[in-house]
Amino acid sequence: MEFTWPRMLWSLGSIPLLLWGYILLGRRRERVRTRLADTHLWPKLWSSSLRIHRDLPDMFYLLAAILFLIGLARPVAAIPLPANRSAIVIAIDTSKSMMGQDLQPDRLGAAKRLVEEVLRTIPRSVKIGLTFFSDYGTVLVRPTDDRSKVREALEQLKPLEGTAIGSAILQSLRVLPDRGQLLEEMGRTGALNLPTGEDLPKAAILLLSDGVSNIGPNPVEAAELAARVKVPIYTVGIGTPEGSVMPYNNQLVLVPFDATTLREIAKRSGGGYYPYQEGERLKEALRQFPWTIRWERKKAEVTHLVAGLAGLFALAGGALSLMWYRRIP
User: Fold this and answer.
1) pTM to 2 decimals?
2) Fewer CB within 10 Å, N side or C side of the chain?
3) Residue spans per domain, the chain
4) Domain 86-291 belongs to what architecture?
5) What is the mean pLDDT of residues 228-249?
6) What is the pLDDT of residue 217?
């Protein structure tokens, strides 16, 4: 257990003083009792059960005081809490072809806008990660429930060079729950040992690209690997069938759009393909993304629990005093 304000634990030094005062009060009672009655009658009038009646409420009050003082230090403990381990990694194409203006303001800008809408659609408890890819895939944000980190990273994306869709898929798989360990074990042993039953948390990749992969690992083979570790890939075609014309090195070049690879990736992985123009259908699919609830130990402040327990001890002491002495100190 840790404490946010550990210096407040010095207040526990008052507990020995309380005990000392209680002992002195008990001795004073004994002296008064000796003066007021015949000592030969006390064994009959003062039994051990009466001593318990006298001391037990006070012990409850003492325990309540100790817990209240501990609560002042704001204790923090690792406690088991239910958590949704489902995760989605969003992979965005940042190749130079994403500068095409067949979508407004350009393909990359349109992809960012769609991702913003998706972030508002996916249930808050589902963790979101962000990967971008050009000549190779790079994980910017590991799956997290802090959407602000994803939005901040999304704003920083700029067009670069090539299009390595396969690399983006592999990098995304490595940061999804439990998949990284499976892939590491597969790399060592050459065999993929999936856990039995429903032990793997639900996970998916949302890949946004104009579809032309020209560098890096084979994207279809990467999609097949994703299927083996139970990660469907939802692909979004960013562009129009007509393509776009854009200036490059002082000349106009045609920037094509090809959904063939994206459709095949979705098919091989068990996901689905969505043209950019069908964003509403994509959001509806992600809105129903399944949860995977697991118990996880997380650090959390437990002041309220300590204070509640202290209150119970105080109530118990008061109830016993009321029952045995018809009064509450």
Assistant:
1) 0.72
2) C
3) 2-79+298-325, 86-291
4) 3-Layer(aba) Sandwich (3.40)
5) 89
6) 92
